[in-house]
């Protein structure tokens, strides 16, 4: 129905900000005031929108702002990493009510990982006083290539047994009407960072540095996934120094600069490390091999980003992921390599910054991806009564 499309467009504007006035909706959508009022009334009657208070008046009656009603339903989010997974229960506006991180090796396969994620969802729902009947959508980030349109993984290099897997079947089999969206974890970090951390940064690169290395592009305010949804595999960019990679090839950036490669070198030297956090803890504690490894990784990552900067011309490069917790031990060599490598005309055109959301960027992005699906015409028809 045309009105479902209208309602979805209204919600797209509202989702893009913390609150919006009716006047701003008129201006953004370009519809008649009668049509906008009707669609707002339908969304308010359905319990999806609510008044969130008055803006400061510039003369006359203060304008009333509209926003998503947080209590309309629950969104579940999972950020599945190479060695650690973070899950969250979020309200309908995408804000986290409760979150938890656990050590979980993605190489154990979907038959182990997905039931564990589902059990964590069960626990958090119980802790927050919610039930699965309230769940409207689920967002999942994974550290591998994703066919976004089909909702499945495609030959992920570091995820044995995951090829062709769609998480929906393992997470929510009892209710196929609930959308379960999957995306590359770097894309969800970028989505969360953009929507909640830096809404005015319309063009930026997000680099995820953890066990693996990922990259996402935000271009003109939208995550760019590429022709088949699988852009962003920074870790498997070929470099001269690269060695044997866990993807089965040789010469990948990740084979030297990834958290798993650094961890392997540290274990060979007799150190007990498992996760990227272990690597960072060792470096921050003053271990010379760990600090040298992070510095060398940063230099190589910075050199790789020189090529990306030349192609994309971003205003900001955001560094996220567990390795980013090393701070200047990693950021300084990345910055130095960028400054030394970019052409003169690109110097001073971008800044290098840490993620503003930290560990919550991934689950925030996953929740917002689920929210986008819930607000689409396909799923919106289950929650509203429309009138032409």
UniProtKB/TrEMBL annotation:
Q: Check the record and name the InterPro entries matching this protein.
A: ATPase_NBD, ROK, WH-like_DNA-bd_sf, WH_DNA-bd_sf
State the signal peptide span. none
Q: What top-level branch of life does the organism fall under?
A: Bacteria
Recorded family membership: Belongs to the ROK (NagC/XylR) family.
Q: What name does this protein carry?
A: ROK family protein
Q: Which organism is it from?
A: Branchiibius cervicis
